[in-house]
UniProtKB/TrEMBL annotation:
This is Mitochondrial protein cyt-4. Residues 530-888 form the RNB domain. Residues 1028-1046 have a biased composition (Basic and acidic residues). GO terms for biological process: mRNA catabolic process. Residues 34-83, 718-753, 1024-1046 are annotated as: Disordered. One of its GO terms (cellular component) is P-body. GO terms for molecular function: 3'-5'-RNA exonuclease activity; RNA binding. SMART domains: RNB.
């Protein structure tokens, strides 16, 4: 503490930051004024607060040369103080705290623990693992972190004993190597290069070398693994040691050290090739997606290969180089990145923008320190294009805030008024906007990049975000909304779509290169060979009233044998006309699925083709037929092209009204369990004729009831082989409507800002999963089973869905199902999260394979998805392969069953050519699921919650019930049990007075209230409830009376 004779004590942080209030006026005049731009109120000096104990050499030199005014008041007085003013340090601190009360603020940790931010620029990077992670109790962090089990399970389920992996903890730049010991006692163990033997439920690996160590060499370490993981510390070797285990650990340490040393040696020897990677690979304007092997082929000369390929440590050297280039290369998604998976290669123009903005920001800051007068500041501001951009942006933000309120929650508030004048931008301005878009929306740089500080500096210079605790990437999203570049409700999740030759536009659409559709079509490959299903085969198609791309339907045919029936699953047949090697087919391969993100849906096929092949009368079909009995046994199967004649469209509600009301509907009914904000639009009219139950004949109803019984018999057979029961999704499903929103655009300038009036209607809740959904699912699985069996019998390569980890864990799965899971299912109870966690971990991730294998989740020995060729490219591939084989059989007059067609040239793909395509296809499909099923819905839900909590657009309870899922050093993580199971965090700083983390346990239910919502990071912070004031109690009583009356 420092004190002047006539002023309060001054905090050293305030003094170092140069806060005007902390320094007497005369003292300010007696030394060099902190550098500010006109109207910035010490903004540039604020940017040094994080490093306030460090002074630049230039500043010290200039201050030492400044003569001291003898009449000025020095910051530190030399005159002695009275005895009454001589206080000890404790009393001084108490006095200062009373005179300067400040709220507690969270301080950035060197390496963040469960936060969306961290200091990666000035603190040393260490090989810190979670040995010292203070997890007191842990339930299911993987489920909490988003419930993307297909992705999270993939981290460890594909890693086997003896595999070498690299991981990076908490966004750190420092790689840590390790060797997997395999799965033991329900958890994976890894020997890390830090000398630790650690357990992990899910470990993100960004580089893998399979079979690097003989598993037998790991046995001494496996022998000391505990039945329950150790805590405090988690390192097994600090609790149990044997001479054999220490010797094995020493050998692994040598192998890891040698691998890294070999990679570094190669890196240095090939430096002239590796350092120019971006120049060699990047396209000037387009984003590329390439595997590590493909990048090595482009970057390294062929003479560096050994035995015709690059060695693992060569590839690891390239991987290290790509990771160091944080702007040019990045794994497409580190959650499911593999050694042969995809890197995103940013175009040269984007990298130049990042470098240019970095240079301009630094120049502006440096130049500002050399301008001692306001006039010179103003001149600098006008001459510098960054300064001009900031002034224009500030003006646009101020105008926007007159119509829409700002929030620190990752989005701006609702509004109905339109701006009068739309801001226009110079060419240089567009570069800064693009920079902010890359940083805030696309997130093209890792957490540890200095781009965070550059972008935050630009935002701080606008002076419009002083009230924000953190000027982070979610503030950047708000900035783009406030200047009218993106809509106020835009969700950053949609920028997670990353496909070759596909651009994400401002208006929410995906821009794909134009394709000549006619040149991509061929004559019907099944012409003259189609079965006419006639009017007797009534094909039932079950979809919503607004579904335009109807993929599938089903019909029933009775046989002459009692108790035996043909179930026909009729699938739309675009594959018969689209050439599999055409430009259109190639484009579909890069965007291999329709997108179903609420508000931003996109069809995979062009609309005209979608309508041409959507299932309807007179449309072609590829029909998968199964002959079954009432015990669910598959007696025979066949595949044949056909023509649909009698098609009946129904909704799932209409079908459910015909089926018996048996079993349990998983999910919540639409009776008070849906949450909505905004003005609900009217129901649009159906786009096709929908049949109701009363429109069906008695025979139709009898057929549907019989199909329901057969479907249940098929499910029963599959459950015996492991098929999982229906499970409720962790996230509710949102619906979004832009009805009633008006948009204002500049008449001539497409790069000008835009304005919007009104806000989306958002509604979310859990839809029931009833008999109609179960019937359709059973029949579609039947179609996939038939397709797999048919192709397997001819050894035809197609994208089979497999779960190899489930095969390896068959005995553990059988035990878990028999002792825990199946009794819960029989009792009609849902699986607790801990059971789901263990079950899904044992099942592992779903992998596409060119060879068939068991698919545990459906209880089938072989399975390939084949029921949605209008929506999924892999289904189209299956149809193309089948059509080619059927054409060959018609040409030769004999069946190919029993023959080996793996490398047959009449097929579009042989096994050799298909297998390399599957990793990239799987990566793209996973990122689509991540956006459509997780991030996108979450951000819409959080928008609705924010609009209700902050702006009162929908009623919310004052308090919520938080069920504890995890207790960590920084607080408690759990779910709002009475509000759609949304994840929430109770930080230690927001816990009530006297509350202790040690008193919280997994499964406890705490009463909390919302303290903060972040739409971009999808985080809810809660706090211990405060006592309501008198007005709040009255409002709560009124709401209670209204609820009771309703």
């Amino acid at each position: 503490m420092l004190r002047t004779a006539r002023n309060s004590y001054i905090c050293w942080r305030c003094l170092a930051a140069g806060t005007d209030a902390a320094i007497p006026a005369k003292a300010l005049r007696s030394r060099r004024r902190p550098c500010t731009l006109p109207g910035t109120s010490g903004l540039l000096s604020d940017s040094r607060r994080a490093f306030s104990t460090t002074n630049t050499h230039a500043a010290r030199s200039q201050q030492s040369q400044t003569p001291v005014d003898s009449n000025s008041t020095s910051t530190i007085r030399d005159d002695p103080l009275d005895e009454s003013q001589r206080l000890n340090i404790r009393d001084r601190l108490r006095l200062w705290e009373k005179e300067n009360p400040l709220p507690a603020e969270e301080v950035l940790q060197d390496i963040s623990a469960g936060q969306s931010w961290g200091n990666f620029l000035t603190r040393s990077q260490t090989a810190r693992t979670f040995t010292d992670e203070p997890h007191g109790q842990q339930s299911n962090p993987d489920l909490f972190d988003g419930d993307v089990l297909s992705d999270l399970r993939g981290q460890t389920s594909s890693i086997l004993a003896g595999d070498l992996i690299e991981t990076r903890f908490d966004g750190s730049r420092l790689p840590v190597l390790g060797i997997c010991l395999g799965r033991h006692h329900g958890i994976h163990y890894f020997y890390m290069a830090t000398g630790e033997l650690l357990p992990y439920q899910s470990l993100t690996s960004v580089f893998t070398v399979n079979n690097y160590v003989d598993p037998a060499q790991l046995q001494p370490l496996v022998d000391i693994l505990p039945a329950e993981p150790f805590t405090k510390p988690r390192n097994v070797l600090q609790h149990v040691q044997t001479p054999q285990a220490l010797e094995a650990a020493s050998e692994l340490q040598e192998l890891l050290t040698k691998f890294y040393a070999d990679a570094v040696t190669f890196y240095q020897s090939a430096l002239k090739f590796i350092e120019r990677a971006s120049e060699q690979v990047a396209d000037p304007t387009k984003v590329k997606y390439m595997s590590l092997e493909e990048l090595a082929e482009r970057i390294l000369p062929a003479f560096l290969k050994s035995g015709g390929k690059f060695s693992p440590h060569n590839l690891y050297a390239v991987h290290l180089a790509l990771q160091r280039d944080g702007w040019g290369f990045r794994p497409l998604n580190v959650r499911w990145h593999r050694r042969n998976y995809i890197y995103e290669v940013r175009p040269s123009q984007d990298k130049r923008i990042l470098e240019k903005v970095e240079e301009r920001v630094r120049k502006l800051i440096d130049a500002a320190y050399l301008r001692p007068s306001s006039a010179q500041f103003e001149s600098l501001w006008e001459q510098n294009n960054l300064g001009r951009f900031i002034k224009r942006a500030r003006k646009a933000i101020q105008a926007n805030r007159a119509t829409r309120p700002w929030t620190p929650h990752g989005m701006i508030g609702p509004g109905d008024a339109l701006l009068g004048d739309l801001p226009q931008w110079e060419e240089a301005d567009l570069e800064y906007i693009r920079f902010m878009e890359l940083w805030a929306c696309h997130r093209v740089v890792p957490k540890s990049s200095q781009v965070d500080s550059l972008a935050s500096t630009i935002l701080r210079l606008t002076q419009m975000y002083k009230e924000s605790d953190w000027v982070a990437h979610w503030t950047g999203v708000t900035f783009l909304q406030e200047i009218g570049w993106i809509p106020p409700w835009d969700i950053p999740a949609r920028y997670g779509y990353r496909f070759p030759d596909v651009e994400i536009t401002r208006d929410g659409r995906l821009q794909r290169p134009p394709i000549d559709i006619e040149k991509s079509l061929r004559p019907d490959i099944a012409e003259g060979a189609r079965r006419d299903w006639g009017d007797d085969a009534k094909i039932f198609c079950v979809d919503s009233e607004q579904t335009a791309d109807v993929d599938d339907g089903f019909s029933l045919e009775r046989t002459d044998s009692a108790g035996e029936y043909w179930i026909h699953v009729h699938i739309a047949d675009p594959a018969s006309r689209i050439d599999p090697m055409s430009p259109l087919a190639h484009q579909l391969q890069t965007l291999p699925s329709s997108l179903y993100l609420a508000g931003y849906s996109e069809t995979m096929l062009p609309p005209e083709l979608e309508q041409a092949f959507s299932l309807d009368p007179e449309k072609p079909t590829l029909t998968f037929s199964a002959k079954v009995n009432e015990d669910g046994q598959l007696l025979d199967y066949k595949i044949e092209p056909g023509i649909a004649r009698n098609v009946v469209h129904m909704t799932k509600e209409g079908l459910s009204s015909v089926l018996p009301a048996q079993g349990q509907d998983l999910g919540l009914e639409d009776d008070g369990h849906f949450f909505a904000v905004g003005k609900e639009p009217g129901m649009p009219p159906p786009i096709k004729q929908i049949a109701q139950a009363e429109d069906l004949t008695q025979k139709d109803k009898d057929d549907l009831l019989l199909l329901d019984r057969l479907g249940e018999a098929l499910r029963s057979r599959r459950r015996e082989k492991g098929q999982l029961p229906p499970m409720e999704a962790r996230l509710p499903s949102p619906t979004v409507s832009f009805h009633g929103i008006s948009e204002k655009r500049h008449p001539t300038d497409m790069n000008a800002s835009r304005a919007w009036s009104g806000d989306p209607f958002i509604k979310f809740g859990r839809s029931p999963y009833g008999r109609s959904e179960q019937l359709v699912e059973a029949l579609m699985h039947t179609a996939g089973e038939i397709a797999a069996k048919w192709c397997q019998s001819r050894n035809i390569a197609v994208p089979y869905s497999t779960q190899p980890e489930a095969v390896r864990n068959a005995s553990q799965l059988e035990k878990l199902r028999a002792e825990v899971a199946d009794p819960l299912t029989a009792a009609g109870k849902p699986y607790p999260q801990s059971v789901r966690q263990e079950l899904f971990t044992l099942i592992g991730t779903s992998e596409l394979s060119a060879t068939p294998g068991p698919f545990y989740s459906t209880g089938l020995d072989a399975y390939t998805k084949s029921s949605s060729p209008l929506r999924r490219y892999t289904d189209l591939m299956v149809h193309w392969q089948i059509h080619a084989a059927l054409a060959q059989e018609r040409q030769t007059g004999s069946s190919l069953a029993g023959t080996d067609c793996a490398e047959a040239r009449f097929l579009p793909w042989t096994r050799t050519t298909l297998a390399p395509l599957l990793p990239a296809l799987q990566a793209r499909l996973r990122q689509i699921r991540e956006v459509d099923n997780r991030d996108g819905p979450s951000q819409w839900i959080f928008q609705a919650l924010l609009r209700a909590w902050r702006f009162g657009e929908a009623p919310l309870p004052r308090t919520f019930s938080l069920e504890v899922d995890d207790v960590v050093a920084t607080g408690i993580r759990g779910r709002l049990r009475d509000f759609h199971e949304l994840p929430a965090t109770l930080p230690l700083t927001r816990m009530g007075l006297g509350a202790r983390l040690a008193d919280a346990a997994v499964g406890d239910v705490l009463e909390v209230e919302i303290a903060d919502v972040n739409v971009v990071t999808m985080e809810i912070e809660v706090q211990s409830p405060k006592a309501p004031d008198a007005e709040e109690r009255v409002d709560e009583d009124v709401r209670r009376v209204e609820d009771e009356a309703a």
